[in-house]
Amino acid sequence: MMCSVQRRSCLLLSTTRRYSAWIAAKKQSKAGGSQAQQQQQRPEPTDVGRLFSDERVQGLLHKLTGVSVDKTFANKRISQAERPHYALMSVQEIERTREAMTKDALERLQMVPFVEPRDSRPEILSDDKEIAGFDKNKFVFTDITFDVTNRERTVVVREPDGVLRTATPEERDRMNRVYFERPYSPPFPPGVFSDSALTEALNSDKHEFVLDWACWYYEPDNPEFVNVARTVYDHADKFKKYDLLWATRHYGGLVFYLVLNHRIDGVLEHYAEQKKASEAADLIRLYRTAFTDWRKAIKTGDSDVQIIQDYVEQYCSPQSKLSSFLQGIAPELALGSQRSPQGPRKTPPSSRKPRPPNKGDGNKK
């Protein structure tokens, strides 16, 4: 018994010393370096995050998202229902109320940040072989200081083999939920995020419900959130269920995800079926903002028809399904598609050969 107590005391003392030394080294590196060195050490934003936050991209995504007051304020399942409020209003009061509801709806349509998932690889702090085999379980040490944010909170793990490492994102989030709990945020992920339950929810057209819950439970850069969002986006694109996310805060992320992966043909066909030429042109503008390898540049005075026509000439054959769909949007394209385009015709984005993976491509949603 005395031996066990001594070994556990050795474990705690060693972990405390290593943890204190690691914190001191981090503080010294921050305080000792010059401002220029600190700026060099800060991780630069990824290309995907910078592109998503671009002013032009944000403007196009907001236009494509649209606004539907009826959909934004539709009845949803909540823990406690509110009593409805009825009032007699004049025409002017109704107009002011509608304007206020539209403004409120726009605030609720703020898009979820589209960022790269944070690194899930832990950092090895020390490897103490002298205390290897002290226990069969891991020991997790969490800084529970109240003035520290959950993202900056230090969480370290002592492995049974004596390795002391930083916590993974999943371990860090779980410890934050244990010590600083929030409503409907249990320590372990809800069952809806499991493969079978997630598939059942998506087959029941609960895409918005799944993404809303994922936004509440995970951080945007959590690898699990990225996996859930990717699954929902792929399902919506495969079964053409874009309207389920239209006019929600998740539609911009869906469109941006499809643009990054050269899969906009399905959305263009969707807009063509609904005769939405303006939305189709805005989607092409967004695609050309992300990828600039075009023969013709978009001019300020180019109309929606001209932009769609250029896309058809560059990426679609006259017999393709997408070409006929886009011609249905703008009848003027029928004349333009009969003449042969200048130069060799490029392959559609969806049929391009996969590019060699770049440094940041593997983490795209």
From TrEMBL:
Name the residue ranges with Low complexity bias.
Answer: 29-41
Annotated Pfam families:
MRP-S22 (PF10245)
For this UniProt entry, the molecular function terms from Gene Ontology, in alphabetical order, are:
structural constituent of ribosome
Instruction: Write down what this protein is called.
Output: 28S ribosomal protein S22, mitochondrial
Region Disordered, residue ranges = 29-49, 334-365
Per the record, its GO cellular-component terms are:
mitochondrial small ribosomal subunit
Highest rank taxon of the organism: Eukaryota
